[in-house]
Design a protein that fits this description.
The chain has about 50 residues and is of the alpha+beta class. The chain has one domain. The chain has two helices and three strands; from the N terminus they run βββαα. A three-stranded antiparallel beta sheet has the order 2-1-3.
Length: about 50
C-alpha cells in the first residue's frame, strides 16, 4: 500500500484520493506521509542556515 499527503485537505490518503498534482508522495508508510510537512520544514530551515 502507498500513502500520500493531500495539500488541499492537509491529511493522509491512501492510493484513492485527490489528484496526484495536489498531494505529496507516495510514501511507503502512513507515518512518513503524516510527517512529510515537518520534515520539509526542517530541511528548509537547514538550508536557510547554510546560506547565512
Amino acid at each position: 500500500m502507498q500513502w500520500w499527503f493531500c495539500l488541499i485537505h492537509k491529511n493522509v490518503e491512501e492510493n484513492d484520493g485527490c489528484a496526484n498534482a495536489s498531494r505529496l508522495g507516495p510514501y511507503e508508510t502512513r507515518e512518513l506521509a503524516e510527517t512529510v510537512m515537518d520534515r520539509m520544514s526542517k530541511r528548509q530551515e537547514d538550508l536557510d542556515g547554510e546560506e547565512d
